[in-house]
Amino acid sequence: MAIVHEFEYFKPERIEDVIKLLSEYKGKARLLAGGTDLVVRIKDELESPAAVIDIKGIEELKKLEFREGKLHIGALVTFTDLIDSDIVKKQFPLFWESSKTIASPGIRNRATLAGNICSGVPSLDSGPALLVYEADIIVRGAEGERVIPALNWFLGPRRTALKEEEFVREIVFSLPAKNHGGSYIKLGRYKGEDLAQVGLGILALEGNEYRLAFCAVGPVPSRAKKIEALLNGKPLTDSLLETAKRLVSEEISPITDVRATKEYRVHVAKIMLERGIRAAVERIDGNGPAYGERLI
Amino acid sequence: MKKISFILNGEKRNAYVEPNDLLVDVLREKLGMHSIKYACGRGDCGACTILLNGKGVRSCIILAIEADGQEILTVEGLSKDKLTSLQESFIDHGSFQCGFCASGMIMSATELLDKNPNPTEEEVKEGLSGNLCRCTGYTPIIDAVLDAKKRDVDKK
Q: Which residues 38-57 of B are in CB contact (within 8 Å) with A?
């Protein structure tokens, strides 16, 4: 199927030119990075931008840098770049593990983290990692830059805190102060390319501190605050885990759709919680299953 | 119409494209690269996989204009002089039935072997996870990739 809709195409080399084009087109322009989402949506006529601004000519947006305990991920960094990065694997292993579950290599070679969060679909696998590492999203607009914490980014399915004439410049992950282990478990219908039916990211920090976030089981990815409050400060025991599992149905609000029923999602989410926490805790000291190993 | 130039299978080529032309259409219809197959049109099936700057990508969800100044490899370029070990291995293992997925499978497997010359079976499955085959049940395809790896080692 060809694209029926016609649009102007621009490939600026400077961020300033992107800002100029965005204000010129007043919300009728869309940014193009990997295009794995945008091109499909233009084909389907779900989007009809007057202009497409290809940002792949802007060198500074390609940067993936770790400095002073912060990982700076430019808007053009793809999931393949993240998976191939030793820094990401070593310092932010849960983020590395979740990046590996996204689509397939042929999509990850093009798809960017920035594009993933701008699409903002409920099942996005990068959501839990952003929320548990409490990443910051740096956006540029005509009035300069602002920092949006990932915790305030997702407003609804395909709705984010990004304003019409702004764009994401980079995403910044800060290294947690304490030693940590993590896990990301994705429930798919089969191995390989599939959207999550349930996704759960868990960060376990030394000293019994936990951060948990779900995706695909509510309108937006979100932290499981009640479970965190229950677990924090307590040594992990079988009975504590059982209590935590009972809270799962209060934390998530899955729907029944073509991929799974809501009952199935809630049931498996509890199993994922138990396996994910155990793996995250074991991994603090370098034990437990290797990152990337399937836990479900 | 805008004129774009890129390296296609080692040769510089030009094409006149509209912003909404898809790369798969320009490569197939204007430049005759019929190894590329167009199926799902949304990046899910892998039949249109090409290597763009050495990386496997889905040409059905890339605008042709994005290829300006880039380097593209298709099956036609892969086997310019003779079949690669991987292609021979596909033939010997009977890895095609209808053959529609074959070009995409071969391009994805070529990328995999470039990046990781010694993949495990799991890694082959992961590398080909975005390429669908509705005939073979995948086993002869995975066998062919694993065997191609051995053939290359034997040649050296």
A: 41-44, 46, 49, 52, 55-57
Q: Is A86 on the interface with B (CB under 8 A)?
A: no
Distance from CA of A106 to the nearest CA of B (A): 5
Q: Which amino acid is at A176?
A: P
Average per-residue pLDDT for chain A? 96
ipTM for the predicted complex: 0.95
Q: Which residues of A touch B56 (CB under 8 A)?
A: 105-106, 109
- Using a CB-CB cut-off of 8 Å, the residues of chain A touching B70 are none
Structural domains of chain A, ranges and CATH numbers in brackets:
8-54 (3.30.43.10), 59-174 (3.30.465.10), 180-284 (3.30.390.50)
Decide: A126 and A139 in contact? Cβ < 8 Å: no
pLDDT above 90 (res A11): yes
DSSP letters, A156-202, are ETTEES--TT-EEEEEEEEPPSS-EEEEEEEE-SSSSS---SEEEEE
CB B130 to CB A110 under 8 A? no
Helix H or strand E encompassing B5 = strand B2-8
**A182, A203 Cβ separation under 8 angstroms:** yes
Q: What is the pLDDT of residues A78-108, one digit of tens each?
A: 999 999 999 999 999 999 999 999 999 999 9
Q: Which residues from A are below 8 Å from B43, CB to CB?
A: 36, 40, 106-107
Q: B30 to chain A nearest CA, in Å?
A: 14
Q: Is the pTM of this model over 0.90?
A: yes
pLDDT, averaged across chain B: 95
Q: Which domains does chain B have, with CATH numbers?
A: 2-76 (3.10.20.30), 85-155 (1.10.150.120)
Confidence of residue A294 (pLDDT cuts 50, 70, 90): confident
Q: How far is CA B140 from CA B47, B97, B143, in A?
A: 17, 10, 5
* Per-residue model confidence (pLDDT) at position B96: 92
The answer, for B119 touching chain A at a CB cutoff of 8 Å, is: no
Q: Is A145 helix (H, G, I), strand (E, B) or coil?
A: strand
> Is pLDDT at A231 greater than 70 in this prediction?
yes
Question: What is the pLDDT confidence band of residue B151, given thresholds at 50, 70 and 90?
Answer: confident
Q: Per the CB < 8 Å rule, is B66 touching A56?
A: yes
Residues 14-73 of A with CB under 8 A from B: 32, 35-36, 39-40, 42-43, 52, 54, 56
